[in-house]
Structure formats: structure tokens, C-alpha cells
């Protein structure tokens, strides 16, 4: 079994991969409309799913709650994959739109990412609990690549 420090180092490495990817996904958005996905609507959806993931992880305090959370983590991962595909279809936003979107969403995105890192570190402190959600969280990280 890996020691806790080694696991945290691996977790830190994974977070260094996820955060830039999420940031790059974030900058791929523009203004929304009702009829089809737009950069802004997808940005809202993405941040909402990340907030949902944080909420699910915050609700984990023992093995039973970790087991119950697995399906919710998997659902968020699937939703984020779908959002990522829709973003690809939209292509890159203009530089001005990118700047506008960063100004509008960067603080909210950074806040949810800080919460995500914090809650996963807390889960790492309970190895018997973390091992239950480790696979689904790895899948989440891999889906963002």
C-alpha cells in the first residue's frame, strides 16, 4: 500500500493536469442563446457540474457514504465528457470573447477548483474511504484529458 505522502504527491500531479485542462475548457466559451449550446451556457454547465462534484465529495465521511457517492461521481464525469464534446464542436472563441469569459467566470471557476483540491486532500486523509472513490476520481481526471 502506498504511503500517504506518496499518494498526495500523485494526487498533486493529477491536480496539476486537471486544473490547466479545466481552465482551457473554460476559455473555450462565448455568449449563450436558448436554442443550442454556446460557450457561455457550456461554461455554466461545466462549473455547475464541478460544483456538484465538490458537493458529492463533501458529503463523504465514511465507507458507506463513499460507496454511495460512486454513482454520482460517475454521473458528473459523464456530464463533463458531454460538455467537453459540445465545446469541441463550437471551436475556439475569439480573443476578445475569451477575455470576456475569463473576466466573467474565472473567479467562480478558481473557487470551485480550490474547494475540489481541499475536499480531495481531506478524503486522502482517510485512506480506507479514499480508495473507494479513487477509481471514479481517476476516471474523472482522465476524462478531462
Task: Please sum up the structure shown.
The protein is built from five helices and no strands.
Task: Provide an overview of this structure.
About 4% of the residues have low confidence. This protein has 145 residues and is mostly helical. It has one domain. The chain contains five helices and no strands. The chain is elongated and about 45 Å long.
Q: Which term fits the overall shape? A: elongated
**Helix count, per DSSP?**
5
Give the biggest sheet.
none
Per DSSP E runs of 2 or more residues, the count of β-strands stands at 0
Give the integer mean of the pLDDT values. 83
Low-confidence stretches: 29-34
Helicity, as a percent range: over 70%
Terminal Cα separation, in Å?
27 Å
Task: Give the tally of structural domains.
Answer: 1
- SSE string: HHHHH
Beta-strand residue fraction: under 5%
Rounded to the nearest angstrom, the radius of gyration is 16 Å
Which structural class best describes the helix and strand composition? Answer: mainly alpha
Provide key terms for this protein.
145 residues; mainly alpha
Amino acid at each position: 500500500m502506498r504511503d500517504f505522502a506518496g499518494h498526495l504527491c500523485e494526487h498533486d500531479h493529477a491536480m496539476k493536469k486537471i486544473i490547466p485542462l479545466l481552465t482551457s475548457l473554460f476559455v473555450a466559451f462565448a455568449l449563450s442563446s436558448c436554442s443550442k449550446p454556446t460557450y457561455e451556457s457550456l461554461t455554466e454547465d461545466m462549473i455547475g457540474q464541478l460544483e456538484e462534484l465538490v458537493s458529492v465529495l463533501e458529503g463523504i465521511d465514511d465507507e458507506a457514504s463513499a460507496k454511495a457517492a460512486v454513482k454520482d461521481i460517475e454521473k458528473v464525469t459523464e456530464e463533463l465528457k458531454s460538455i467537453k464534446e459540445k465545446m469541441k464542436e463550437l471551436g475556439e472563441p475569439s480573443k476578445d470573447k475569451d477575455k470576456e469569459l475569463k473576466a466573467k467566470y474565472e473567479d467562480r471557476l478558481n473557487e470551485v477548483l480550490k474547494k475540489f483540491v481541499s475536499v480531495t486532500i481531506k478524503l486522502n486523509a482517510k485512506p480506507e474511504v479514499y480508495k473507494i472513490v479513487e477509481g471514479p476520481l481517476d476516471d474523472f481526471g482522465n476524462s478531462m484529458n
